[in-house]
Design goal:
- The protein contains two helices and ten strands, in the order E-E-E-E-E-E-E-H-E-E-E-H.
- By secondary structure, it is mainly beta.
- The protein has one domain: Jelly Rolls.
- Bound molecules: 2-oxoglutaric acid and fe (ii) ion.
- It comes from Aegilops tauschii subsp. strangulata (Goatgrass).
């Protein structure tokens, strides 16, 4: 993440984390001000992911599309062949950003609650699962 002041940080609205489940389906951000839909007030605002080669990339997709992120459960069940997607959300900043809200619909898919997961020995401490889970903030 960037080292700017909190308000401008890439993770200013939702800290870096990986989702716990198998797969997360997401709609794109919907911005509202005083209960009225508004265009995104800051093109830098929104969802960011960290790629396997350690680049931070802004995720863009349309309102008639869905994005899917791999969660920690899939990383465990695939024995590390698939990696959980580290992600965060940047708040809008600038003149038009005050009192703006952002909504998305997130569908978290996961095994039954009582399903026992065996953490594979091949990935005893995988970096996404260990480092980022600790800092999960939403
Ligand atoms: O708001 C988003 O686009 C992502 C939300 C998120 O990461 C979560 O709910 O786990
Ligand atoms: Fe998430």
């Amino acid at each position: 993440s960037t080292q700017k002041e909190d308000g401008d940080s890439v993770s200013s609205w939702c800290g870096w984390h990986t989702d716990h489940g198998s797969l997360t389906g997401l709609t794109c951000g919907l911005f509202m001000k005083n209960s009225v839909e508004v265009p995104c007030p800051d093109s830098a605002a929104g969802l960011y992911i960290r790629t396997r080669d350690d680049r931070v990339v802004k995720v863009t997709f349309g309102e008639d599309e869905l994005a899917y992120q791999i969660g920690e459960t899939t990383e465990i069940l695939s024995r590390g062949r698939l990696c959980a997607t580290p992600h965060c959300v940047q708040a809008p900043s600038g003149a038009n950003a005050s009192n703006v809200e952002r909504s998305t619909f997130a569908m978290f898919m996961q095994p039954d609650w009582n399903e026992t997961l065996n953490f594979p020995s091949e990935i005893p401490y995988h970096q996404e699962v260990c480092h980022l889970s600790i800092t999960k903030s939403c």
